[in-house]
Amino acid sequence: MEGWTGKILEIDLTTGSVQESALDMEMARMFLGGRGLGTRLLWDLVGPEVEPLSPENVLIFATGPMTASGAQTSNRFSVSTKSPLTGTVLDANSGGWWGMQFKRTGYDVLIVRGKAQAPTWIEITAAGVFLREAADLWGKGVFETTELLGQDNNRRNVLCIGPAGENLSLMAAIMNDRERALARGGPGAVMGSKNLKAIVVAGKGKNQPADRERFKFMLYETGKLIKASPITSQALPAFGTSVVMNVVNEIGALPTRNFRESQFEGAERISGETLADSILVRNQACWACPISCTRISKTEAGEGEGPEYETAWSFGAMCGVDDLEAIFEANRVCNDMGLDTISVGSTIACAMELSESGLLDSPLRFGRADLLVETVRQIGLRQGLGDALAEGSYRLAERFGAPELSMSAKKMEMPAYDARGMQGQGLLFATSNRGGCHMRGNMLGPEVLALPRLIDRFANQGKAGIVANHQNMAAVVDSLVMCKFTNMAVSVDFFARFLTAVSGTNFSADDLMKVGERTWNLERLYNLREGFSQADDTLPERLLSEPVAAGPSQGHTVRLAGMLAEYYQFRGWDEQGVPKAGKLRELGLEDLV
Questions:
Q1: pTM listed for this prediction
Q2: What is the H or E stretch that residue 520 is in?
Q3: Residue 238 class from Cβ within 10 Å (0-12 exposed, 13-18 middle, 19+ buried)?
Q4: CA distance to 44, 242, 356, 589, per residue, from 314 (Å)
Q5: Residue 351: which pLDDT band, with cuts at 50, 70 and 90?
Q6: DSSP codes of every residue in 144-189
Q7: Alpha carbon distances (Å) from 285 to 158, 180, 280
């Protein structure tokens, strides 16, 4: 099959060994690449006896068969590992240029294991693979490290951690191309625990489609669909991801002040429209992306990417802050420190509520925009109060006697949707295999944006099947690996036809959806093997028992129990949430258990 190079690069930092191995092409057919392939490899390499921050944990960087092909948004890649924040299986993916460049070095996958004796960075080029000393880089921020290692978007690309990863913050991200992020779940801490500062790639190879004429036709047809969609051709290019800020606020689903409320009076002042009118400099696109949703903004503090919707919310509504410049500056510091903005903002909001409740002695209060930047810096450096916050909101709240104030699922901070106003989103958060996450099958489309059609956001009956199908589809896109925004305009049938053109092997829409379902079930098996159970498929008590006090979602809680039982049944799992033998046989996973 074309689309895959057929090679895995394995680096053991403990011994300094560098080896190549062959990619199992049957495994590639079953799991494609990215998230799916990373999960399958992780299953074999990291068992329940391995601690996330031990040398035995691995980092699996994986591209997909579409990566570097030139298909729209074929720039992405993923990292898979055991999460130090949640203890679950973890995949995080990112765009930019690094994934394309790594594929051009001739590998599908990079597996990093062990721990270097001293700070190290890896260089992968046409000349070979080299382990370099990084003592002079250790302690430096992401921006300076990226510059010093020679970032050049089309020729040489840098992936690195900042001080947060070095200091093992459980919210540490891995950054690539300066401000792109493999953010959620703490992969940066895993990289820091290995004394690995950076991975630099510069390749010359190409991912040539097997059927070039068919590929060109798919480029044309997909381009028409992206241009025809008002979201991918107008809303995202004009206002970025924050275009949904006012929409979500108006329906009463914008979590405010640590989910105490579901509408924010300052939403307009931190929206995509306000950003475009005030601090926006220009748009920017990832490699091979026609959507150009990235914002390049500028304030007196400097110029940089963002803030994206989730970031504007986490430092904004979640913290009761409506100062867009303060939010942008907190975002810049997060990126330079190498931190997940969703978890950091949510953890600061948790600290604000703990402080207002008298449980934490700190000046943090809702609305204190003046404290955001310094608090983020302290988290990255593990200084002062930041040392406690660096563990994430769950451990922070538990430490001060109120774990219920952590707005997290499986210890991962939930994103910018109050599930009391979006029942399907609540089921998604509760069942997400990596913890509270919208990127595992976002229900914003059907419950709010009418994509593909509008459904009752307060209904809970019938939501299980829709959520499961969205989860499977998300796993497909993450395994190809492509951008989910493309999926707002392009159906799974188009992805299948694209993959067929690239690989020279026929893939149907059903084949791809089976890959998604197979990946989801394997992630579930991984978590079960780690000791997770039905009891972990839940939400903070605030969402389950505290009705929204005012606004369009007034009186609602998340009615999870019924949806969860229906979800297990739809998935082919037993009442305890364990995949049945028949389902595993259907997916070809029976030999793994």
A1: 0.98
A2: helix 509-529
A3: middle
A4: 36, 12, 18, 38
A5: very high
A6: HHHHHTT-BTTTBEEEE--HHHHTT-TTBPEEETTTEEE-TT-HHH
A7: 17, 11, 15
